[in-house]
Structure formats: structure tokens, C-alpha cells
Design brief:
The structure is a single chain. The chain is mainly β. The protein has no helices and 11 strands. Strands 2, 4, 5, 6, 9, 10 and 11 form a 7-stranded mixed beta sheet that branches. Strands 1-3-8-7 form a 4-stranded antiparallel beta sheet, with no helix packed on it.
């Protein structure tokens, strides 16, 4: 499965960014999809997961600020991030059916 992420960048604290990830798999609608993030020296952690049954789970630190969504026809998963904080700075990875993309960097300046 090839995943192509886009939308990372640098913003000031309180700003917004939108990430997207296009998948190559034809089985996208049956896949769990989501976003993970990792900072140097730390384990990759989940940020938000949208399961194929419609359930969505967010890690506590992003609840109310981030929104994950999916478009099964376009085989795309999105992450809308608002009120960004410096602690959100990380490499963000898209996940589709347990495959990971190359990552896109998000940097939030305090």
C-alpha cells in the first residue's frame, strides 16, 4: 500500500494545519485509518484513528482540537488540526490498514 501525505508545515501556536493522505489500496473502505506522530527519541504514538465501522478514537491531548475524517471514494484520510501547541510538534504519519506513510513534519512555534 502506497501512502502519500501532504499538508505539514510550520505555524505559530494557536494556528491550524490540515493533513491529508491518499492511499493506493482498493480495499481502503475496509481499512482502519489514522494518524500517528513521533518526536526524536520517543515512541510513535497514535493521534487519531478512524475505524472502518465508523468509530473514532483520539488521544487525550488532541481531543477537541483535532478532527480525523475519511473519504472512502477518494481513498483519503484527513487530519484537521486547530489551536496547535508547541507539544504538537512532531513528524506525523498516516496509517491505512497498518501501513505507514513516510511522514510529514509539523512544527509549532511557541
Amino acid at each position: 500500500v502506497e501512502l502519500v501525505e501532504s499538508g505539514g508545515g510550520s505555524v505559530q501556536a494557536g494556528g491550524s494545519l490540515n493533513l491529508s493522505c491518499v492511499a493506493s489500496t482498493n480495499d481502503f473502505r475496509h481499512c482502519g485509518v489514522g494518524w500517528y506522530r513521533q518526536t526524536p527519541g520517543k515512541e510513535r504514538e497514535y493521534v487519531a484513528v478512524a475505524n472502518s465501522d465508523g468509530t473514532i478514537v483520539y488521544t487525550n491531548s488532541v481531543k477537541g482540537r483535532f478532527t480525523v475524517s475519511r473519504d472512502n471514494l477518494k481513498k483519503t484520510v484527513f487530519l484537521s488540526m486547530k489551536d496547535l501547541k508547541s507539544d504538537d510538534t512532531a513528524m506525523y504519519f498516516c496509517s491505512v490498514c497498518r501501513n505507514f506513510g513516510q511522514g510529514t513534519q509539523v512544527t509549532v512555534a511557541a
